[in-house]
Amino acid sequence: MRRRTSGGLLAAATAATALAGTAGVAGPAAGTAHAAGPAAACVMRENSPHTDWTGMTWDADMMCDNAPGDVHLQSFADSPVVGRMVTTRSWFVCWKVGDPHAGGNDIWYYTQGDEVVSRPTAQAWGYMPAVRLETSQDPEPGLPKCSWG
Question: pTM to 2 decimals?
């Protein structure tokens, strides 16, 4: 589980995400804009607990291929960057509507980044725009909407 920014934990998280979920290949659905190339299917994982910096908890997540990038405190392009995702298969716990982004929609996915960039109390928890994830559609079926979004 990604929790901190130390090299050992990041290396372990990178190795774990590389081993997790090697399901079939699925491309983006019509009407979605994602990075070119086929994507491994997103995989829902039960019994995969997470607690964010506010105390919110989840008992499941979704593993998806993703492009490395910034994790924003809120689901807005000009929101502070609190974390950075460096792994390319990562977990996400929910989604919400935010600013439109380059992917042609306004869906953002909530996660914890691999590295803390600012606001250490947020522990790199925040949102990545859907364009950074290889999903079949946005929002990805099966992943819950964030309760506050």
Answer: 0.75
